[in-house]
Amino acid sequence: MNTLSIPALQPEDATVPATSPTILVTGATGTIGTELTRILSEKGVVFRVMVRSARDVKKFNTLAGVEVVIGDFNDTATIAQALVGIDRAFLLTNSSEQAESQQLNFVTEARRAGVAHIVKLSQFAADLASPVRFLRYHAVVEQAIKLSGMAFTFLRPNLFMQGLLGFRASIAEQGKFFAAIGDASVSAVDIRDIAAVAAATLTGSGHEGKIYTLTGPEALTHPEMADKLATALGHPVTFVDVPPAAMRDALIQFGFPIWQADGLIEDYAHYSHNEASVVTTDVQDATGSAPRDFAAFAHDYTSVFLTALSSH
């Protein structure tokens, strides 16, 4: 059955200018997409988002300048419909076994639709020969975009600072969080800075052909991150290094699909070899603003962590 596709649904409470959108945002309901759509709306940009179901439409009710179309990455007809009139597109899907084929579907339809420029959310160190499955599939899609003839900008962020929000429960219950990384340093990046770079590349010029490796301003070990979280939260937080097998079991218990859990273990093996410790200036180069450091992240998300603490 084809997914229901509704072109140009207008969120009820939003004020949408008469101008037709030429920017499409996919992955708009996720953490990066939510921040990106907020930035674009505040900039007064008219844009379109592609979402998976009618339930997602209401998430954009308060944003001005947005059109909503329902589409499915596995249904090329709905992708084609979402791309009508689009000049620039932001490509982001869930990281799953289907991600490579879904993104390749999108690239094919974008080329057919005459899209001029794709901004793709990729990953730090994407490489066709990588032992990390996530890095391989991102590299395959990057290569397809390059071969398509469309202009491109690839955003390759490092580990997301907000990924630590997934440890809220263990921090609340035990004052601890866990991973298989040892004492390696990682230049983690705030998703708000990733979204800011995406907004800049979708609305500005001079980003064509660029590959932005997005990091925070410092490389930290996980124990150093724990110390900064403890300072922000006002109570002890400890990092505990665990074997990869234990981390895999925990991820599966938390509900991660096996494919994704195995991919995260590969990611952390990559991190554990200090292969993700480089610090770049690419966030500032793209946006004109310095990236947030980890202490700022911890401070800004204190209420989120404390909410988890107060519920236990």
UniProtKB/TrEMBL annotation:
Pfam families: NmrA. InterPro entries: Ergot_Alk_Oxidoreductase (IPR051604), NAD(P)-bd_dom_sf (IPR036291), NmrA-like (IPR008030). It comes from the Bacteria. Residues 21-261 form the NmrA-like domain. Gene3D superfamilies: NAD(P)-binding Rossmann-like Domain (3.40.50.720), UDP-galactose 4-epimerase, domain 1 (3.90.25.10). This is SDR family oxidoreductase. It comes from Spirosoma aureum.
